[in-house]
């Protein structure tokens, strides 16, 4: 049977997991199913992998492994703050940690030292996992993501694949689905760098709470020094979600009719309340 899981989703998974074979020097993404991750369905972080990375990348934390738990406590607090401060603000705060802009008093004589979650200088020191069919539960809501890309136990990328064989279905259906997820389970998107949606013909991406019309096409083959890459990056920052804060009553990314249509279609499928299962 041809559906999104056996076609588009499988293609994305294979493309990531085979990078190191097809392009020497590329980083390999190891493929795991969501159920194989060292986490329960209510966890956003894979804490064991975050802890290992903190010890591996930070000499002062390696000297006292208990410091890793202090950092994880801070990160978990940020994740939980999405409900009170809004996912955009929580995401921006988490970004500061991700980019190594935060410090903790872990040095000699308790001086503050920078905490590194990801090694951007030597990428081989990080772990990379692409997980499929990842379930996340919060309260009475359960969602299942097609793809989640984890770096050092942090879910930095969420992706949705839509079937290329279904008439009238495009990447935009996946983007709309992600928007509903961001409203229903904002905690999972606090560490998020970007999301993507694809129908097998087109792949587009956007940051947290980016409006649909601002999702950009993935420019495969453009090098970092290509002027088109620099312009696309600048456009994405200018058009992104930096000023959108749900705690200040920001509107939904999509019209009420679009969201209602998606919810009604989902409910009629018998999947249960809200988004308990990924619709085809």
Could you explain how this protein is built, in words?
The protein is of the alpha+beta class and 280 residues long. It has one domain (8-268). It is 36% helix and 18% strand. It is built from ten helices and nine strands. It has a seven-stranded mixed β-sheet, with helices on both faces. The longest helix is centred in the first third of the chain and has 15 residues, at 66-80. The chain is globular, with a radius of gyration of 19 Å. The chain starts with 7 loop residues before the first helix and ends in a 12-residue tail after the last helix. The model is unreliable at 228-277 (pLDDT under 50).
What is this entry, summarized?
By secondary structure, this protein is an alpha+beta fold. It is built from 10 helices and 9 strands.
């Amino acid at each position: 049977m041809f559906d999104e899981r056996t076609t588009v989703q499988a293609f994305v998974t294979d493309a990531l997991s085979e990078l190191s074979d097809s392009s020497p020097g590329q980083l390999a993404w190891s493929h795991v199913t969501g159920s194989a991750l060292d986490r329960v369905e209510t966890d956003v972080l894979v804490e064991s992998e975050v802890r290992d990375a903190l010890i591996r990348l930070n000499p002062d934390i390696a000297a006292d492994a208990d410091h890793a738990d202090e950092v994880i406590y801070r990160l978990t607090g940020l994740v939980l703050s999405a409900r009170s401060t809004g996912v955009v603000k929580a995401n921006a705060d988490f970004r500061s940690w991700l980019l190594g802009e935060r410090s903790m008093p872990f040095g000699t004589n308790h001086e503050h030292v920078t905490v590194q979650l990801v090694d951007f200088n030597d990428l081989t020191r990080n772990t990379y996992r692409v997980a499929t069919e990842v379930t996340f539960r919060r309260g009475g809501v359960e969602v299942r993501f097609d793809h989640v890309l984890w770096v050092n136990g942090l879910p930095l990328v969420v992706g949705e694949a839509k079937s290329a064989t279904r008439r009238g279905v495009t990447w935009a259906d996946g983007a709309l689905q992600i928007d509903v997820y961001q409203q229903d389970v904002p905690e999972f998107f606090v560490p998020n760098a970007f999301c993507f949606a694809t129908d097998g013909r087109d792949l587009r991406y956007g940051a947290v709470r980016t409006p649909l019309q601002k999702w950009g096409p993935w420019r495969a083959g453009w090098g970092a020094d290509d002027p088109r890459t620099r312009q696309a990056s600048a456009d994405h920052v200018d058009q992104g979600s930096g000023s959108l804060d749900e705690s200040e009553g920001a509107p939904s990314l999509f019209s009420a009719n679009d969201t209602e249509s998606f919810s009604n279609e989902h409910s009629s499928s018998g999947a249960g309340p809200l988004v308990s299962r990924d619709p085809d």
